User: Fold this.
Amino acid sequence: MVKGIAVKGSGGVARPLTRAEWASLTPTEGIPRYFLLEGQTLTLWPYLAVGETVTAITQSKNWCSAGGAAWVADDDTALINEALLLKGLIVRWRRQKGMDYADYEAEFEAALRDFASFDDRSRI
Assistant:
């Protein structure tokens, strides 16, 4: 587990707390609304009832099918939506070349918004 994770349960997404904020809470059972991440330990408040589950959503710098952050072979593919990736690359290329990129950027941001909302509003 790394800093910046999102914790999602049946009641929605729980938000992180600091150690000082955590100290003011009293233990109770329910649907988690907050979490504390210390090292590899994830603590929830309220704590989970028997049979309840939560999901920890993480982000990784490894975005290639080869399992790394760099392309290794010609047949590697991106683990993110490739149409979205292409739109972003066009924006960056046009900006680097000093060309007008406003329309392309708006199209990319709209596609990113659509993709994120389709993917349960998770951050990409």
